[in-house]
User: What shape does this take?
Amino acid sequence: MFNKNLKLIIAGLIIAFSVYQFIEGNIGNGIFLILLSLIFIFLYFRNEIILLAFLRMRKQDLTGTKNWLDKIKNPEGALTLKQQGYYNYLHGIIFSQTNLTQAEKYFKKALKLGLTMDYDVAMAKLSLAGISMQKRRKREATMLLNEAKKLDKNNMLTDQIKMMQQQMKKI
Assistant: This one.
């Protein structure tokens, strides 16, 4: 909703006012204002619209996810690099259902910008491997599958990786 720099300015102003409240002897107000400023600092690192889009994605509502992502008009200016990565990651998941070329572009851009969680990187590489398999690029798909396997430390994607490896043998 707010620009990323505006969030930091608001947090700074709230912290300054909380210091004033501490000086005046209103300790409770000062503590409350510091907690309030932490919300704006948190939202600097985690964009609220992307968080709402992830909630829609958990409910398997791709159109709702797309609607939330469309509210971000200028992702390069409004988001940090990691947030831009997740913005492209979500777009890749949405387009993987319909347009594989577009999805591949978004997944590659998300990996280039960076994703925080290893699971998300593994999922993006697994999706790219699936797209490469459908485009008959076996070497690239094998490489991406091996990278996804290394990144999947909690073994959450092992079934999908094994299934894709079996499909690779048929090609």
